[in-house]
Amino acid sequence: MAKQLTSRKENYSQWYNDLVIKADLAENSAVRGSMVIKPHGYAIWEKMQSALDTMFKETGHQNAYFPLFIPKSFFAKEASHVEGFAKECAVVTHYRLKIDEDGKIIVDEDAKLEEELIVRPTSETIIWDTYRKWVQSYRDLPILINQWANVVRWEMRPRLFLRTAEFLWQEGHTAHETKNEAIEEAERMVGVYADFAENWLGIPVLKGVKSPNERFAGAVETYCIEALMQDGKALQAGTSHFLGQNFAKAFDVKFVSRENIQEFVWATSWGVSTRLIGALIMAHSDDNGLVLPPKIAPIQVVIVPIFKDKEQLAAISEKVKEIVKVLKAKNISVKYDDRDTHKPGFKFAEWELKGIPVRLAIGPRDLENGTVEVARRDTLEKDTLQVTNIGEKIENLLIQIQDNIFQKALSYRDEHTYNVDTWDEFTNRLEQGGFVYAHWDGTPETELIIKGKTKATIRVIPFDEMHKEGKCILTGKLSKQRVVFAKAY
Amino acid sequence: MAKQLTSRKENYSQWYNDLVIKADLAENSAVRGSMVIKPHGYAIWEKMQSALDTMFKETGHQNAYFPLFIPKSFFAKEASHVEGFAKECAVVTHYRLKIDEDGKIIVDEDAKLEEELIVRPTSETIIWDTYRKWVQSYRDLPILINQWANVVRWEMRPRLFLRTAEFLWQEGHTAHETKNEAIEEAERMVGVYADFAENWLGIPVLKGVKSPNERFAGAVETYCIEALMQDGKALQAGTSHFLGQNFAKAFDVKFVSRENIQEFVWATSWGVSTRLIGALIMAHSDDNGLVLPPKIAPIQVVIVPIFKDKEQLAAISEKVKEIVKVLKAKNISVKYDDRDTHKPGFKFAEWELKGIPVRLAIGPRDLENGTVEVARRDTLEKDTLQVTNIGEKIENLLIQIQDNIFQKALSYRDEHTYNVDTWDEFTNRLEQGGFVYAHWDGTPETELIIKGKTKATIRVIPFDEMHKEGKCILTGKLSKQRVVFAKAY
What we know:
With 489 residues, chain A is α+β, with helices and mostly antiparallel strands.
């Protein structure tokens, strides 16, 4: 079994790395920090894209595409934005190579750019420079645009999917007439992300806002969804920012209002990335490999024939053809693995590793009995079913699996969520992992001291704890509500 | 009419630029040579992506994603490849900015990369470096992978969609056991492109191979599809390359064959880009704006109400709701433009400009008579139809329009295709535009002399002229077949 993974218990971090490689999701490339997303990993990303894209369009957004390169001077225009991103920017300085006298390829110094170009780490600046030309009057608003793109943020400690120098994402950038409308949009989109995380990825998330320390560089408010991984660490799974008029002021984007007054436009931006694949892995998978929720699985059902010779395979394939037809008619994606180069046991392990939710196995005795063996990836349970009404049966099973995966993650989170009121309990709980609800006096200073002492940060100031006062876990000062501390990815 | 275009007759090039801007397809950005693809333009690209992606998957390909950045040394490994791309490479030299003592944002010289990174102009090198790790045995072959990505090729004379520094495309990269299998793949994919161009974009194309001068840098053979624009200039609409073992040798990608011998892998690559949007515009559009073939139109039918007051609008909207339902049930994409801020005439012009294939207008009299006015974008003809069976009627009309657009382009091409045998006729014809079939002695030298004298190049060595011998138009030497000359984009 060359493909066996390190167990989670033994070494969680190694388990994750093993799984990503052995389930053929991604691998490191020759460019430090940049990954190759392999077909199975990319197919999962395509499923995510498709679901999200539909949700974005249903909420009135359109896709567009803005340049990869951003003039350096654009960054300077929004002070906190440049401060946030300056340290991780890839910079293009030349636009030509040449071959020197020794036949070596070198950068052509005659082709130096007058102004350096930054490879986008995020696109607020180039987009707001564009919106200036698009907006004159309130009639031009709102602008509701999303972009699917690659971005680059230089990473000193890269990890596949979780932190890579280049990653794929979507970034929404909207422009509004009023503050309230922009806030509504930012809240709507964090809601879309929460819906997607829970109902597609099967990952329960906390919704709320970030503390000022953790806010997006240039935002007035950052809304987020926060998920708990199986090692008790938190993972930020999506953010939506109310940007106020910061970028409109930096890029001079004004409009004539209904009252015929020149005003600055209100903005939001929001994004999720291929990091979600990391979240998906760490939320559900086990020591046998990936566990995919059916709604996000590129292949939902794999069928493996059990045969001794060609005649048996032919007879089984005949039956499988019917089953495939029935399943496809129900929009279930199915793969028939009839390779004769590998034994069934090898195939079982491979599809388990790759997280396919349902495996059907059919042998000669099944043919006689009109049965099929059904194995669930999430529980690893097996059952023998009559082939009659197999479509409905599998359809229902996929719904059950989707639900079970979510419920399991929810139970895990509930079991690892704590309300604490003493400093000792606080540090103990953080040490063991999980979401720790504690009171905080609301100051960045206190948050930084806590981070220094515990390595934990405020992951989210949750909406559902609002107005429940108490005393700060560190300073004893008045706290307006509990906030959620955790160590995080 | 602020939106009116320069006519094609007056200034074809200006007409094109006007159309791209005024139909809201794209615009220039602050970064020279990089465009912003606006929602309407991007929606057309999404339709293209969706159709092509399905065709790629039906021919056995999977999507994956490879890094944006390529180490400079990778380029040096395939000699003709680097020669072809060196002059248009954007080069990343640093990975950090900093704020200097005067508060200015500058490149941090302490963050200079040891080896410069090239922003991919195409991905053969990074992909073949990766394939080396994926291939050991003939059992690992073929690898059939496609990538949707952005690429950068520095452009000194940029034009929206046609030549931009950054563009979007797909690039297929396949690895095979045998030479024949790779050639078959390259030919299959140029066939897919021709099918897509003709049956989706409505653009008739010539299929064949490129002359050595026009071959892709690193290819053994370049297959292409070549289309004729309305100004008589040719446009290369897609290429598919048989790469031989060039990249396998450069990156040491070997496999153990069925005969248990170490052999180099055979390769292909193939791509089409957002340039196709330029082709689509120039093949079909007219002085009123864009003309979209229904199969590639993001909106196929627009419905405009003609009303004097709110009551009329309400009554019309009631009827329109039914029509929309009927059309959607037939998978026809439809937009109801019930804005009360603009007059019908304005809306008619706007949707004409944007190329929507069918416009329905409904006024109070139509309500009484159970009719609707139908306008075709391709012919600008209007007709009044009974609403009964409107679904079937529009469905058939869209098929007719798709066919008519193709037939019109085909007639145009036929009328501008010439067989010539004398130098005078050759230069005259090239001056006027069109595809000129002429004999060529097969040498790069002759092609270059002809290019120098006429500015025309060999666009394609067409398959269907093979083995029809003659005498070279320039040198009088033996020619194996006619080739197609034209001036080109």
